Every structure is written in structure tokens, then in C-alpha cells.
Amino acid sequence: MTETEREQTDEPVLAAENLTHSYGDVAVLDGVTLEIPEGRFTALIGPNGAGKTTLLRLLVGLERPDGGRIRYDGPDRPRRIGYLPQRPAFRPEFTAAETLYFYESLLGVPEPQPRAHLERVGLAAAADRPVGALSGGMRQLLGIAQAVIGDPPVVVLDEPAHGLDPGMRSRIFGAIEELAARGVAVLATTHDLNAVERSGDRIGVLDRGRVVRVGTPAALRDELGVETLTEAYDASVAGAAGTVYVEESGGEQQ
Ligand SMILES: Nc1ncnc2c1ncn2[C@@H]1O[C@H](COP(=O)(O)OP(=O)(O)OP(=O)(O)O)[C@@H](O)[C@H]1O
């Protein structure tokens, strides 16, 4: 698709407004505001334990926030938000095509087209393979195909490229770019900063339950006067690199 065909506006289809969330007395999100515009790939990055998965689960409605709200301003569709969880659970004995057929049936799609969906993510050749016999990367691609069934205006992906080889990772990010190029509002978490720098239209940096930066890769670099996104990331997140932040229950933040 050419750049002119590519629909890019700043209209947020989905927005988190001042979200707070705790697990018991452990505060995980502390006033998170983030807009997910149509036709853009918004990448959510941040250290382990920052609250990325929690934010995604709130946005897709799997958990309720303690405070704040989630605004959906997209078209009314049977499926508004497609979601790829961090560990998608598929039935291993179903084939890839049967798996997608099953999800299409659940959504009441009148003429399921599992093979067309597999083709879109480059998995056509594996249509008749049982899911249990797919590689990790192929399963992630199947997960992305599942997340876009029903043409949801928003697609939310939790670490879609986790644990994949470079070739498979670039296929995954290519599939994400294509989704955004078709006008979908895509939000994905990842630790792959190089891929984000290449493919991300916008970046949100989440640190200790707060969005500490939002902008294009270039804007973040300029704002911080650095050359690479990795440097921008290091300058944005608190704490020692390589240390997982764990909120002390009921205590002071470290
Ligand atoms: N179901 C739960 N019950 C209690 N605590 C939880 C639960 N889920 C997450 N947490 C805690 O919430 C914090 C944020 O976790 P979350 O998975 O949202 O972070 P993340 O940024 O996605 O991390 P990672 O990059 O490691 O996937 C962590 O301290 C985690 O231990």
C-alpha cells in the first residue's frame, strides 16, 4: 500500500484516561493516559514489571480499572478490539485453519475464510498443520491472524515477537505495519527497541505504572538529545538497568 493510500490521522480510536489499578494493595498503574490513534502502530515499551500487560488487559476489558476510564471512539462493530495475549492458548489438536474457523464461528462471521486470514500473515502453507506442530513464531502469527478476525478497528498485541528469531520478528512487525497501513489502530508491547525504531509510528514509555514519554521515535530522540531509541529509553526509565522493579506492597516506592 502506498503512503497516500495509508490512512493516518490523529483521531484516537481507543484511549486510556487516568487509569489506576492495583492487585491487592500493590499499586501497578498510577494515572495512565494514552491515546491509540487509527492507522498507526503505537508501541508500548518499558521495563519488566512496569505494568504493560496490566494496561493492555484493562484496555481490552479483561480487568476493570480501580479509577479512570477507557474511551472507545471507533465504529460499532461486533468485535471492537482484537487481542493477542502474552501466552495464547490454542487447542493443539486443531489445525491452523480449524482454529481460525472456530474463532470466526464464535464471532458469527457468515462465511468464515480461515485460509484467507492465514494467507494475510504468511501462514497459508501451514493451514492444515495441527497447532501443536507449529513453531513458536508460527503460533504467534496464528495469534495475530486470530486477533484480526472480524476486522476490529483496534488490535492489541502483548509481546507478539517474544522469543522469535530475527526473520520471524521482522515478519511479525511487517504484519503489524500492514495492519496499521489498512487503518487499524495497533497497540503492541515489545522489548525489541530496534524493531520499534524501524516500525513504530508512536512510542509510549511506561515506567513504574506511569507513562513517562509519548511520541514518534524521532521526537523522543530529539527531546532527549540522543541518537538512538535505546539511549532515549535508558534516559527515560528510572532504576538500574537489568533490575526488575517490584512494588513493595503498601510501602514506599523504591
Ligand atoms: N494477577 C496478578 N496478581 C498480582 N500481581 C500481579 C498480577 N499480574 C501482574 N502483577 C504484578 O503487576 C506488576 C506489573 O505486571 P505486568 O505484567 O503488567 O508488567 P509488564 O510491564 O507487562 O512486565 P513484563 O515486561 O515482564 O511482561 C508486576 O509487579 C506483577 O508482579
As a percent range, the share of helical residues equals 25-40%
* Largest beta-sheet details: 6 strands, mixed
Radius of gyration: 18 Å
CATH class of the largest domain: Alpha Beta
Principal-axis shape equals globular
Beta-strand content estimate: 15-25%
The count of helical stretches stands at 8
Strand order of the largest sheet: 5-6-7-3-8-9
CATH 2nd-level architecture of the largest domain: 3-Layer(aba) Sandwich
Indicate the CATH topology of the largest domain.
Rossmann fold
Pfam families: ABC_tran
Family: Belongs to the ABC transporter superfamily.
Keywords: ATP-binding, Nucleotide-binding, Transport
Protein name: ABC transporter ATP-binding protein
Question: What report would you give on this structure?
Answer:
Residues 14-233 form the ABC transporter domain. This is ABC transporter ATP-binding protein. Belongs to the ABC transporter superfamily. GO terms for molecular function: ATP binding; ATP hydrolysis activity. Keywords: ATP-binding, Nucleotide-binding, Transport. This protein has 254 residues and is an alpha/beta fold. It folds into 2 domains: 1-75 and 160-254, Rossmann fold (3-Layer(aba) Sandwich); 90-152, no CATH class. Helix content is 30%, strand content 24%. It has 8 helices and 9 strands. The protein has a 6-stranded mixed beta sheet, with helices on both faces. A 3-stranded antiparallel beta sheet has the order 2-1-4, with helices on one face. A hairpin with a 2-residue loop joins strand 8 and strand 9 (210-215). Helix 2 (96-106) packs across helix 3 (114-120) and helix 7 packs across helix 8 (229-236). The chain starts with 11 loop residues before the first strand and ends in an 18-residue tail after the last helix. Residues 1-8 and 250-254 have low confidence and may be disordered. Bound molecules: adenosine-5'-triphosphate.
